[in-house]
Amino acid sequence: MAQFVDVRAMVTWAADRGPEEIIASMIDYLEEDFRRWEAFDKTPRVASHTRFGVIELMPTSTEDEYGFKYVNGHPSNPARGYQTVTAFGVLADVHNGYPTFLAEMTVLTALRTAATSAMVAKHLARPDSKVLALIGAGTQSEFQALAFRRVLGISSFRVWDTDTAATEKFVRNLAANGVEIVVTDSAAECVEGADIITTCTADKTNATILTADLIRAGVHINAIGGDCPGKTELEPEILGLGDVFVEYTPQTRIEGEIQQVAPDFPVTEFWEVLLGRRPGRTSPEQITVFDSVGFAVEDFSALRYVRDMVAGTDFAEEIDLIAAPEDPKDLYGLVAAAAPARL
Amino acid sequence: MAQFVDVRAMVTWAADRGPEEIIASMIDYLEEDFRRWEAFDKTPRVASHTRFGVIELMPTSTEDEYGFKYVNGHPSNPARGYQTVTAFGVLADVHNGYPTFLAEMTVLTALRTAATSAMVAKHLARPDSKVLALIGAGTQSEFQALAFRRVLGISSFRVWDTDTAATEKFVRNLAANGVEIVVTDSAAECVEGADIITTCTADKTNATILTADLIRAGVHINAIGGDCPGKTELEPEILGLGDVFVEYTPQTRIEGEIQQVAPDFPVTEFWEVLLGRRPGRTSPEQITVFDSVGFAVEDFSALRYVRDMVAGTDFAEEIDLIAAPEDPKDLYGLVAAAAPARL
Description:
The structure is a homodimer.
Chain A: E1 2-5, H1 7-17, H2 19-35, E2 46-49, E3 54-61, E4 65-73, E5 87-93, E6 99-104, H3 106-124, E7 131-135, H4 141-152, E8 156-160, H5 164-175, E9 181-183, H6 187-190, E10 196-199, E11 206-210, E12 220-223, E13 232-234, E14 243-246, H7 249-255, E15 268-269, H8 270-274, E16 288-291, H9 296-310, E17 317-319, H10 331-338
Parallel strand pairs in A: 1-6, 7-8, 7-10, 8-9, 10-12, 11-13, 12-16, 14-15, 14-16
Antiparallel strand pairs in A: 1-17, 2-3, 3-4, 4-5, 5-6
Helix pairs in contact in A: 2-3, 2-4, 2-9, 3-4, 3-9
């Protein structure tokens, strides 16, 4: 039997534990996995593009454990009452190939994306960063704000979104957490005085959410909304202002902001910074860009983390996903044995 | 909410309906999908190879529906009490990216593999075929025998396996279905007088289960055990004796028997035969080889079939896999709303 964390269990667990606490401790799992980056079997995710959106499978594995996530991206979904991104994920035992753990990952992806952003910013943003500008007040925004407050000690928040209802929702949700937000009327106003800029919009186009003239020295840009071929947020000139950091280069070349520049545009993979093999931030004036698209290893870390946290609690239930005949070669017998009682 | 068919439900449904009946009617779904082959988004499956075995994801989609299967292949599993192959699969709505259906597929894969073999043999084997030789008496063998009895009217069965316990299991299971089997002592003896030869062994090596000198004119070879790089069953000379038919050429070049021959070795995709675009069997003397590796479209058909058959019955239950906040941009609110009741 595999363990299963359904939506109700994930939501209740996240509320019980608190998103900020989860994000902070999930970073330990993320850093553990980024430090053993070379031990992972890595591949760009497998995307199925349609005129409505994209459905992706994101597998990765170590010598002992395998994981994958199913995730969709449908920017037109909210207008029809659906979420842009939904997801679920699985862990499996590499030794026998059996799935061991299944979990909803819509909520979990929101937590892991915020945790990844905060982990990277902790190493790349100026240590004295106090002001976070958020462009985009959608699904990911609250998780980002809480992550940066908890992990980097951000105390001042600014937001800009074309959707005023989304902005109001964001302000309301954060106010309940004792976070005050300055609502602005443009991207330019939003990033005034910001130490860190997070772009998290969902348009599936080459949008220019942020232009180079708005970027001042020393800023860390956390670009998470551009994550698909043809879906970017930054004016390409921004990429030349400083140093660009990525998760897994082959996937980011396809999906990230750097799809707008030459295929040999220099980037640094974050795990190299974490291991001290490549420099991260080298001066207070340096502009750093995390061109984040979301990589399978992050989902693997998030799944491992939840699996360990809910083990033995009521948040996990058993799911009957894998047939287990007494004689492993007698699968037919399993079917035959079920027949007489019904005839 | 998505619909879910767990192992118990799948086994009970298969027993209730009967494997032969399921295989026969699943072929209608398979043929429907093979006929619209060009409408599918196709890619070779994504395999994660380890020293223990392989874990694969097999996605495909039409303009309306997406499906994928998770499946492992661990030839050393039975010796440790586990099955060689286990699987589960998912259907999703391409329009919003939401999963709609989750099912165990260990049992279902056994049924769809047998259904695919029978569908292809119905078009490629001699219409007067009466004798089936099965090399390999493992998990797939009973499903193959029942499929060929039902769909092609095979009346005489011969088997050979190095594992006598597996052979005894096969004989016992088939006897309960009124099928008598001739147990033989070698591959050579097994294929004597056979009109159709099915090879379904599980060794993850370039084994030579069948040699060219054993192949008589007019035989149809249903080669289903060679389905991984480095895992083949046929002496390569056999491929030159007649015409080779495949599911999806790019995947079969990687995984099938034809990995043993030149990358431009001529093959025919089965859907072309089904649509009358390419010849299948053209004479009673012709030797035909179905170099089957199992392709995502077959799992898509099998999932569609089960989904339609169990809709509204007790065999399907609801599973809480996708978070559905009232405001699709307010995922955080879903977590926040769960908090007060527990504080």
